[in-house]
Write a structure and sequence with these properties.
Elements lengths: L7 H22 L6 H14 L3 E5 L2 H11 L7 E4 L6 H8 L3 E4 L11 H7 L4 E5 L10 H11 L4 E3 L7 E2 L2 E2 L6 E5 L13 E5 L2 H10 L21 H10 L3 H19 L5 E2 L7 E2 L5 E5 L4 H10 L29 H9 E4 L7 H14 L3
Parallel strand pairs: 2-3, 2-4, 5-8
Antiparallel strand pairs: 1-9, 6-7, 6-11, 8-9, 10-12, 12-13
The structure holds pyridoxal-5'-phosphate.
């Protein structure tokens, strides 16, 4: 039995009629950029996220980039984030001539450790980007308090966290900017690239709308230096068809996670994911920690049994060649560095069949001799 990390053809097959009609109708209109359907999708996602505005963009990376651009920072200003994330989170900081400053993670949740964030704050700190990794929110209670003390804006990277809650409050209500990615394998994925910034701040939303279209409202007059970052109409149509299913898909991921939690309970050699009691997890990844240096051996064993798995992430950003110029050294973020050698994500997609997840669990147990 073959089990992969994602099965997008199966997701498409389930929605084929509606999906084909939606995409073909875009082709027939000949309107491929921002259309009335963009505004409709923005308000649907904003509404389900509990904020007033959504601004649809080209990618999750652009959602982070435009959020930082909207803050009007100066070269050398520092932005604190985690080194245990997809590169885009820190890349946008560096691209704007700002300085990424990396704080360590909480080893239980893999999210930013608020106490280390506090230690990294200087007079040059101008923003904090918590990443809500694997489908679980960072400790926004503590981070909001720290940001408030220092009057720092928060950009929540929710590329992996659509539908998440912390203390019963949706992810988008915790930061000035909350960024989503619609990369095809994210919990809500387009058929190509896409992203969105969610915000409750009208002025911020308006500035983002300028920035995504060359700093203009399409009048050939330019208020800001912007760029080209539209969510195209075909992606808008695809997302419009998928959106009504996101809650059920997130619930299916949670059920798969609950199944694995029970299957691995009490087993030695691995640590199952930890959900902080104040969080609702959406399991973008189901990430176990493998002890005793056996992570790569488990990955190879799963692969021999035709089971996909992923290492998110195999390295910390402060030690990557492109980011070493910011002065990072081994040992700077010990919990993040240890995690890179121990984490393994196993299939948790909503399309996973009962017999597939049983096979995954049995195979993992067999590896550990259980
Ligand atoms: C996917 C992802 C991004 C980037 O999103 P794209 O849509 O691929 O540009 C940023 N941050 C995190 C944490 C991600 O997982």
């Amino acid at each position: 039995m073959k089990v992969s990390m994602a099965d997008l053809p199966a997701q498409y097959a389930a929605l084929k009629g509606e999906m084909d009609a939606a995409v073909l109708s875009v082709l027939a209109t000949g309107m491929f950029g921002l259309t009335p359907a963009t505004a409709e999708l923005e308000s649907r996602i904003a509404e389900m996220s509990g904020v007033r505005y959504g601004v649809a963009l080209n990618s999750g990376t652009d959602a982070l980039l435009l959020s930082l651009m909207a803050l009007d920072l100066s070269p050398g200003d520092e932005v604190i984030t985690t080194p245990f994330t997809f590169v885009a989170t820190a890349e946008v900081v560096a691209l704007l001539g700002l300085t990424p400053v990396f704080a360590d993670i909480d080893p239980a949740t893999y999210n930013l450790d608020p106490q280390d964030v506090r230690r990294k704050i200087t007079e040059r700190t101008k923003a904090i980007i918590p990443v809500h990794l694997f489908g679980q929110m960072a400790d926004m209670t503590a981070l909001t308090a720290i940001a408030g003390e220092h009057q720092l804006p928060l950009i929540g990277d929710a590329a992996q966290a659509i539908g998440c809650f912390h203390h019963g409050k949706p992810v988008a209500q915790w930061s000035l900017f909350t960024t989503l990615s619609f990369f095809p394998t994210k919990n809500l994925g387009a058929a190509g690239d896409g992203g969105m910034v969610l915000t409750d701040d009208e002025a911020v939303a308006e500035k983002l709308r300028y920035l995504r279209f060359h700093g203009s409202k399409g009048t050939y007059s330019y208020k800001y230096v912007g760029l080209c970052s539209r969510l195209d109409a075909i992606q808008t149509a695809v997302l419009g068809v998928k959106l009504p299913h996101i809650d059920a898909w997130n619930e299916a991921r949670r059920q798969n996670a609950t199944f694995y939690d029970a299957a691995f309970a009490g087993m030695g050699g691995l640590v199952t994911p930890c959900t902080a009691p104040e969080n609702v997890h959406t399991y973008h990844q189901y990430t176990i920690r493998v002890n005793d240096g056996r992570r790569d051996a488990l990955k190879a064993y799963l692969s021999e049994h035709e089971i996909g798995s992923g290492i998110y992430y195999p390295g910390v950003l402060h030690l990557e060649e492109a980011y070493r110029r910011y002065g990072g050294k081994p040992g700077d973020s010990p919990h993040a560095e240890t995690a890179t050698a121990e984490v393994l994500s196993i299939p948790v997609m909503p399309e996973l069949k009962a017999e597939q997840r049983e096979f995954v669990a049995d195979t993992v147990r067999a590896f550990f001799g259980g």
